[in-house]
Amino acid sequence: MRFHVLTLFPEMIEQGFHTSITGRAMEKGLLSLNAVNIRDFAGNKHMKVDDYPYGGGAGMVMQAEPVYAAHQSLENQAGRKLRTIYLTPQGHTFNQKMAEEFAQEEELIFLCGHYEGIDERVLEEVVTDYVSIGDYVLTGGELPALVMMDTISRLVPGVLNNDVSAETESFQDSLLEYPQYSRPEEWRGKKVPSVLLSGHHANVEKWRREQSIIRTAKWRPDLLEKAQLTKKEQEFLKG
Ligand code: SAM
């Protein structure tokens, strides 16, 4: 998977991504990152890429041409059109299903806005997907891009040491994941549930499934509508 990020702050993307699991996956060649500074395409000696909004109002707007030129440079290198995601609070809210779909692509471009956003005309030209990470407003698209890239990366085969862990995680089945425990067996008087120490694989699986259902019903009952529950599990929930 190759990620291109169009941004005014490439160092923020590079530092965020060259760490931990994603950093190791890059070393292994499973992921690659190309953070492109839009300012390099400013086309003026002051490297200015923003201007006042027409019609007045607070803040500055990122101008169309530098964003377009930076985007063109990527598509020219690739020799084809690339799926281009604009991070914006106005977009569809990002979720695991969208991550699974984006993970099917070989290359993705993330476009990060700053200030009051980007001139609408260039968005109409280059953007294929408008994505938000939630109903709140950040100062820029860099953290949202990192959130999306991290989520998508975990779905790229080989990035996680244990492929099963992506399959059993929260949202995979419209259920939240069961609680996890590690050593010691007893911590400050709290014991690890005995079934997890039993070595009985089927009982462990049964307990985990029940815990997932209980937890989802308690914290995210909205998810349960889409979860595939057996008749017995539905009765268990009612009881
Ligand atoms: N004026 C814009 C509006 O009201 O829709 C908000 C601009 S915001 C201050 C600057 C940039 O941060 C946006 O262009 C976008 O790239 C990014 N951004 C802010 N909040 C975001 C969110 N919830 N999801 C994704 N991107 C976001």
TrEMBL record:
<protein>
    <recommendedName>
        <fullName>tRNA (guanine-N(1)-)-methyltransferase</fullName>
        <ecNumber>2.1.1.228</ecNumber>
    </recommendedName>
</protein>
<comment type="similarity">
    <text>Belongs to the RNA methyltransferase TrmD family.</text>
</comment>
<feature type="binding site">
    <location>
        <position position="113"/>
    </location>
    <ligand>
        <name>S-adenosyl-L-methionine</name>
    </ligand>
</feature>
<keyword id="KW-0819">tRNA processing</keyword>
<dbReference type="InterPro" id="IPR016009">
    <property type="entry name" value="tRNA_MeTrfase_TRMD/TRM10"/>
</dbReference>
<dbReference type="InterPro" id="IPR002649">
    <property type="entry name" value="tRNA_m1G_MeTrfase_TrmD"/>
</dbReference>
<dbReference type="InterPro" id="IPR023148">
    <property type="entry name" value="tRNA_m1G_MeTrfase_C_sf"/>
</dbReference>
<keyword id="KW-0949">S-adenosyl-L-methionine</keyword>
<feature type="domain" description="tRNA methyltransferase TRMD/TRM10-type">
    <location>
        <begin position="1"/>
        <end position="226"/>
    </location>
</feature>
<keyword id="KW-0963">Cytoplasm</keyword>
<keyword id="KW-0489">Methyltransferase</keyword>
<comment type="subunit">
    <text>Homodimer.</text>
</comment>
<dbReference type="InterPro" id="IPR029026">
    <property type="entry name" value="tRNA_m1G_MTases_N"/>
</dbReference>
<feature type="binding site">
    <location>
        <begin position="133"/>
        <end position="138"/>
    </location>
    <ligand>
        <name>S-adenosyl-L-methionine</name>
    </ligand>
</feature>
<comment type="function">
    <text>Specifically methylates guanosine-37 in various tRNAs.</text>
</comment>
<keyword id="KW-0808">Transferase</keyword>
<dbReference type="Pfam" id="PF01746">
    <property type="entry name" value="tRNA_m1G_MT"/>
</dbReference>
<dbReference type="InterPro" id="IPR029028">
    <property type="entry name" value="Alpha/beta_knot_MTases"/>
</dbReference>
<dbReference type="GO" id="GO:0052906">
    <property type="term" value="F:tRNA (guanine(37)-N1)-methyltransferase activity"/>
</dbReference>
<dbReference type="GO" id="GO:0032259">
    <property type="term" value="P:methylation"/>
</dbReference>
